[in-house]
Specification:
The complex is a heterodimer. Chain A contains five helices and six strands, in the order βαααβββαββα. By secondary structure, chain A is an alpha/beta fold. In chain A, strand 2 and strand 3 form a beta hairpin. Chain B has ten helices and five strands. By secondary structure, chain B is of the alpha+beta class. Chain B has a five-stranded mixed sheet, sandwiched between helices. The chains are: A alpha/beta, B alpha+beta. Chains A and B meet through helix 5 of A and helix 9 of B.
Chain lengths: ~190, ~300
Amino acid sequence: MDPVLKVSDIKQYLYCPRIIYFTYVLPVEKKTTPKMEVGKEEHLKTARLEGRRRLRTYGLTEGKRFFNTYLFSPRLGLEGVLDMYITVPRGSFPVDFKNTCRLAVNHKYQLLAYALLLEDWLGRPVRGGFIYLIPLGRAVYVEATPEARLYTKRLLGAIRGLIEREQFPAVPRRAGRCADCEYRNYCGDVG
Amino acid sequence: MYFLADDERKQLLRYYLPKARELGVAEELRGWNWHQPPLEPVYGAVLALYEVAGKYCSSGRDVFLRRVHGIKGEPNLAMIQGAVLHEILADLLVTAKRAIYLHGAENYRAICETLEKYTPAVSPQFASLSDAEAADLCRKVEILCSFEKARVLSRLQEMLTRHPYIGEDSLANLTIPVVVEQKLNGAFLGLSGSLSTDAFIFSEPMILDLKFGEPRDFHRLGTTGYALVMEALYEFPVNLGCIVYGEFRGDRLIVKRDIHIISDELRQWFIEERDEKARFVAEEIDPGLAGDCPSTCPFYQVCCAGG
């Protein structure tokens, strides 16, 4: 049976497929890096502040916020805890908090996976969502286009394929990412 | 073939253009970031754009055979027909431009005459066709030429009626606002140094690709590849692509256009394909048979001769 994947697996897979290998195929002990600690703290702080803010950052007016919602879709075989979603009369929008100044591709598909999950959860179409860039205090809208939805599902397929084949992936294209990777000690072929 | 119809132009202006600007593209997937991952080529292998974008062989063995073993496949009928029709369309448009420059707006009758008299040269590719195939292709060439001549003439007349003081350079540009067979150097992205797009519109940067076969989802990879190369070379965003499908139905030419946004997804897909195929070549890895090999595949005899 296919394993239930986590939304964060998409982000990790795009960052470096070896993380998926070390998570599912050859589970190893990992250390929490300082970067992760800071990120966690910033997340909590942002969530606390968000509760008191208006929705102007998202270009919305009246709406309700829901924090840290556990979402699971048996259809997609996917689960995750969504930082926040906003429900307004014209629909719902997932929001993912990121402690970064620029929108990276892996963040985009992580958000889209949340959008797919939320859609199944609510039983209503979700047209897109927001990535909240914490240091800038700015939200970037990401539309769930048909192409983007397909690609997100393709990514889930690719992750499952990697787990099934149990094949150690090649060195990622962006080798600079290894510097602060929690699995660095387990990769013998990176500098 | 490359001129949009009114409804398509409306769709382009009211939907695709604003949508492309609104959606945006991840900075790392813009062609001008060719010097850093993920666009930076991982392997030294140089591929033609059609090798990356063509997924007629689903395993990519065609690229392996061509690049590693130096085997040249036998072009099939569709490929020969496509090549001839492409060549003729480009030739016709260049002939029209040349006539405009030669005669000028004042002698527009001579331009019309040149175009009306245009007969394409017989391509050497006809030699490999049977009599029936050659006759069929001749018929298609004729249909294509008469369609395109009428389109160009109509645009020429329109421009002449609208701009009384027009000079030949402007007339040529407004009548045929595309560059055909634009040569591009794809080296920045690990692609061949002499690529050429079927057509390119500069006014709103849009890559045009002409096809005479069945629409396939991976056709968009071609426009995506050219868009990335254009961005790498000229450092301006190319957000749109359009695949022009020509289909001959009886003595009619049916034209369908697939306008699309060169999205993050297409860009990612293109890079993945490039890296995978470059790996086959650089590491000399045989990806194996595709499993769904059509008998028309240029490498069918090599891969499935015993089967």
